[in-house]
Structures are given as structure tokens and as C-alpha cells.
Inverse folding.
């Protein structure tokens, strides 16, 4: 179980690095940059659309909204930019 958590943490850290590189890339469309920033902001802000103290629904909005924003942004970004950023993230 600990191996799985450690592996997941490493993958998550690498993905965050990829998204940071994508946001800095000049070939990334502005709307995609905005959506990635919105996903990060929504995750970090202390308030949600549905407050977290409401059982299940409070955390469910985070599980739906953040991945939706990221997927939508990634669909707008040229594949070459994503591949280049993944390569850079894996090298560091």
C-alpha cells in the first residue's frame, strides 16, 4: 500500500511540473493557460461552490470540476507542446 501511495505521489508531482511548463510555454493558447490556472486556483481557494462540510457532495465538486478544467485545457493545447513539456519534466 505504501508503494502505491509513493508511486502516485511521484506521478502527481511530475504532472504538476508538466502543467507548470505548459503554462509557461508561449505556444499554449491563452484560454488553456487560464483554465489550468483556474483549476489550480479552485483547488487552493478556501471556498468552494459546494462547501466541504456537506458530506460527500462537498468533496465531489472538487473531484469533478478540477479534472474537467484540466482535461478541457489539455484538449486545446497542441500535442507537440504537451510532449515537449513531459520530456522536460521527466529530465528534471
Amino acid at each position: 500500500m505504501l508503494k502505491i501511495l509513493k508511486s502516485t505521489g511521484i506521478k502527481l508531482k511530475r504532472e504538476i511540473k508538466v502543467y507548470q511548463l505548459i503554462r509557461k510555454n508561449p505556444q499554449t493558447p491563452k484560454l488553456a493557460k487560464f483554465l489550468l490556472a483556474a483549476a489550480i486556483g479552485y483547488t487552493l481557494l478556501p471556498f468552494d461552490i459546494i462547501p466541504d462540510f456537506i458530506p460527500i457532495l462537498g468533496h465531489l465538486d472538487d473531484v469533478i470540476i478540477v479534472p474537467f478544467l484540466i482535461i478541457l485545457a489539455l484538449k486545446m493545447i497542441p500535442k507537440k507542446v504537451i510532449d515537449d513539456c513531459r520530456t522536460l519534466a521527466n529530465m528534471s
Q: What stands out?
A: Residues 2-24 form the longest helix (23 residues). The chain has four helices and no strands. The helical segments are 2-24, 30-44, 57-76, 79-91.
